[in-house]
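Feature request disguised as a bug report, sorry. It would help if multi-protein outputs had a clear separator. Right now it looks like this:
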Amino acid sequence: MTVHDKRDVTPEEYLTLERAAETKSEYLDGEIIAMTGASRRHSLVTANLIRELGQQLKGRPCEVLSGDMRIWVPVTGLYTYADLVVVCGEPALADGHFDTLMNPTVLIEVLSPSTQDYDRGTKFVHYRALDSLREYLLVSQDQPRVEHYIKQKDGNWLLSEAADLSATVALPSIACQLVMAEIYDRVRFEA
């Protein structure tokens, strides 16, 4: 990620610019940060996750949202986008534009070489400030690997990992299961 604009921008100015922009940007502490595009593998993995979760959540009180749904972390001030969002119950939206979610239940990031450190570190610190968040998944696009964080009753996060195409990742907060082979359907890995 690269800084798009160094001057201090208010959240209101960011939202006005973002709603008119052709590309997506994040916002934190007065800075707008441009987001980069995605690779074919990244797009395939994201589409597979949306398909799998969408089918399992059909007819239930949760919805799967694509990476176009902006997320706001009020406690830290971060405006960002995840690759995939699941929200259960009534979505809490920041304003009358209905495009900024404040209560995700599950967030999923498909890791890219340029963003994986940010997604694992700083971004996850911000996400953990969301009271509604119950699970966070980091999905590799370069190998079959899912890092799955589940919020515990004491507020700590428990990490489990899956790295085999025959494995299944259970998401207890939304009563879904992701089969690794389905996450990586049609994805070819380099030898």
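(second protein starts here, but nothing in the output says so)
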Amino acid sequence: MAARAVKPTALSPDAARMLDALDAARERTLTLVAELSDEQLERVYSPIMSPLVWDLGHIAAYEDLWIAHRHGALALLRPELATLYDAFETPRAIRGEIESLGPADAREYMAAVSARSADVICERGVGDGVLCEMVVRHELQHGETMRQTLAIAGLLPARERALLDAPLDAPEAWLRIPAGAFAMGAPADGFAYDNERPRHTVELPAFALARRPVSNASWLHFSEGGGYERREWWSREGWAWKEEHDITHHASVEAGDPEAPVCHVSWFEADAFARANDARLPTEAEWERATTWTQQRQDELAGVGRVWEWTCSHFDGYPGFAAYPYREYSQVFFGEDYRVLRGGSWASDPRVATVTFRNWDLPLRRQIFAGVRLAKDV
């Protein structure tokens, strides 16, 4: 999708920037699927992933809901699609079995929604900017999810596979973080997701964090050394999952560059690897503390943003959490089931993967571009 050639001269700078951001996100989405056939877009590659064409319709429906309907007070463009493209009303397991928009209709729907969003923003501005920014980041996040589907299908473009497989030029070493307090979470001003707030003070003892994520070579050494056979390294739940599904290392471990960060690792595997190396996974507070510490000094954490990094923390709200603008974004996932990931991946847009951004998934999932960075007590 080309950027809009004409923008009203009276458009505010905030509104103009938002239109540019929406256009850039849409261009990124459409470029990703431009060379795929209709069959590839409509096919189900995994029961835990949506058909790519469903993602396209969902992106449009979400944008129409929040910009035209909630921000602009307009009726939904296609109200009959609301349930179909609601992520909770239509779970992933059934998205390939129900009738949804085909590729051409989905693209047409996206274009129509985009035009309505532009009209609303030109007329009303962006308000406090929260809803419009949320829509931009939602589409960018779906771009990463769609890349996960493409990776499962073996359809990732070569240029993107190269980003995944690029080696890390950093030695294995540890960064010692001294004991102390720090402000965790997003500040009150600017955009952040509800689960990143409120900012609060956390006191931590000293700890050490690996300067680089675990490599494919290290993971292969773990696997060949009995990593998937040594019961003492696994949690009870992790061992049961491994035995039931006959799990061994992901195919990408051997296929990738030995010095690239290991990817497609579940939390269960990450936890076992850490135990096998007399280490542990960091808490998410430790992860954020170390990252903000290195931003203030000359210390370096290599490979941040190459793969999502599992933490040992369960996903829950910070003290004083308040759901906004809807509880289904994060609150419904709070509890013991989900583990937090930090840092972003090669497929994450920097607009999304900030230092305070919290990702989460079930401990058995391997579709995420997730790896491991170890921690130790000192």
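Even a blank line would do. Unrelated, but nice: The two ends are 52 Å apart (CA to CA).
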